[in-house]
Design a protein that fits this description.
By secondary structure, this protein is α/β, with parallel strands linked by helices. It is built from 6 helices and 5 strands; from the N terminus they run αββαβαβαβαα. The chain has a domain of 99 residues. It has a 3-stranded parallel sheet with strand order 3-4-5. α1 runs antiparallel to α2 and α3 runs parallel beside α4. The protein is globular. It starts with 7 loop residues before the first helix and ends with a helix.
């Protein structure tokens, strides 16, 4: 910025680091934190309602991070907006069930135009099929199939 004022993102970073230092103190070793302090780190670093990018399922640390986040105290970390590629792990669903997360947006890297078109075509063909849920709808479904056939 031209006026020399600190950027908002820098202020948030400074505040986040101050919360982490206050919570963990001497348990921080440079940029490292012991595995057993991961939940305390997440609870200190993530403020309620923040947007969090979380690994989906394609990284070896995805399970560990998702389980650690799901282990957080929901009174400290809640109403998060997740950004990730897929909800693939049971701990991803735990985040919503415990109130830690309230919203999810999916993000992908690379071109997906052709994959999206194929996917939407498959979805359309699936939605055209009717799957009976009760005996009365089964009868209706059979009747409609006979008249169409």
């Amino acid at each position: 910025m031209k006026d020399g004022a600190p950027h908002v993102r820098d202020n948030r970073r400074v505040q986040r680091l101050a919360r982490v230092v206050a919570a963990l103190g001497s348990r921080i070793d440079g940029k490292r934190v012991a595995t057993q302090d991961t939940v305390a780190l997440l609870e200190a670093a993530i403020a309620p309602g923040e947007r969090v990018c979380l690994e989906g399922n394609n990284q070896k640390q995805a399970d560990f991070l998702a389980e650690s986040l799901a282990s957080c105290d929901a009174t400290k970390v809640h109403d998060l907006h997740l950004v990730q590629s897929v909800l693939a792990l049971p701990s991803h669903m735990d985040l919503f069930e415990r109130g830690i997360a309230r919203r999810v947006d999916f993000s992908f890297s690379g071109r997906r135009r052709h994959a999206s078109r194929a996917s939407s075509n498959r979805a359309r063909s699936r939605s055209a099929r009717s799957i009976p849920t009760s005996s009365s709808s089964a009868a209706t479904s059979s009747t409609s199939r006979r008249t169409c056939a």
